[in-house]
User: Which sequence fits this backbone?
């Protein structure tokens, strides 16, 4: 790594994760953002001039990462997305007490991507701020004219997108989602994210497994609804992306310009069967493009790091 990096002042995005890769893609071109994959690379940065932000879902790994970064002298920001909050909540009493003590000692600023996560952390005596990052698909969606997205509404075959995940089907209520697909044969359902999911017995349902970003753009452009009813969640990137492309979003957490829904199968069926979901979600698209732009996201994190530097 160029020695010049150590002389610069900025924000170091740390770790190996899909979210970290997305942060890197969103911040590319910004002079005060740097990517750092491991502790060896971190030694090239000046701790007096740089703030490190990281994300880990495993509590033990999260504490370890925060401790090492802190011991190296850096200001530390931890980003919480949902699974990591759930994992912390589910620890045994003594492990939770120790983990909370170390996290509070090492982390200078906590960021969440959902107001409900802020409330859950508050119950654990962790004060956090909301910071919802956009996704790289923001750039694709921004370039697509609204009229192009409205053309899909001429297709009477309503298509519903659903996310699943191999090994965590319980978290994404995959069984319930399959029951809904079976109960509404007049609709088309597309599952993504789970290479092991079998939907061959459902003629109106297809499972594509893990797909590329280019494929996701095509799916968003031709689909009408994103259905996401989970056991626990943050502010999913997929919800933001669906709003970018004007989809109606049915979600069980409160987000502007989405439809709030419970796990009740009849309630979900009624919402899916309504004509409303055939309309382009213009308000949702405008909201997402405005509130979850790369420019705003970068500005927000820069302001948070200023706060942290003042508090040190």
Assistant:
């Amino acid at each position: 790594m160029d020695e010049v990096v150590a002389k610069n002042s900025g924000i170091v995005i740390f770790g190996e994760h899909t979210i970290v890769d997305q942060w890197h893609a969103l911040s590319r071109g910004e002079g005060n953002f740097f990517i750092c994959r491991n502790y060896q690379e971190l030694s090239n940065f000046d701790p007096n001039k740089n703030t490190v932000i990281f994300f880990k879902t495993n509590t033990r790994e999260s504490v370890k990462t925060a401790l090492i970064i802190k011991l190296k002298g850096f200001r530390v920001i931890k980003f919480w997305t949902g699974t990591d909050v759930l994992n912390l909540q589910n620890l045994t009493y003594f492990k939770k007490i120790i983990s909370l003590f170390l996290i509070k000692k090492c982390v200078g600023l906590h960021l969440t991507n959902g107001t409900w996560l802020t409330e859950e952390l508050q119950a654990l005596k962790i004060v956090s701020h909301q910071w919802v990052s956009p996704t790289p698909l923001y750039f694709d969606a921004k370039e697509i004219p609204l009229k192009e997205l409205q053309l899909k509404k001429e297709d009477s075959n309503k298509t519903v997108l659903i996310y699943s995940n191999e090994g965590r089907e319980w978290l994404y209520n995959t069984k319930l989602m399959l029951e809904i697909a079976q109960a509404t044969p007049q609709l088309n359902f597309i599952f993504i994210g789970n290479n092991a999911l079998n939907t061959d017995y459902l003629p109106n349902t297809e499972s594509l497994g893990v797909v590329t970003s280019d494929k996701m753009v095509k799916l968003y452009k031709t689909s009408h609804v994103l259905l996401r009813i989970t056991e626990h969640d943050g502010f999913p990137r997929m919800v933001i992306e669906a709003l970018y492309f004007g989809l109606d979003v049915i979600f069980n957490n409160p987000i502007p310009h989405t439809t709030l829904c419970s796990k009740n199968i009849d309630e979900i069926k009624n919402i899916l069967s309504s004509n409303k979901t055939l309309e382009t979600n213009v308000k949702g698209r405008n909201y997402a493009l405005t509130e979850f732009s790369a420019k705003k996201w970068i500005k927000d994190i820069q302001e948070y790091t200023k706060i942290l530097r003042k508090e040190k």
In short: The chain has two domains: 4-134+293-311, 137-291.
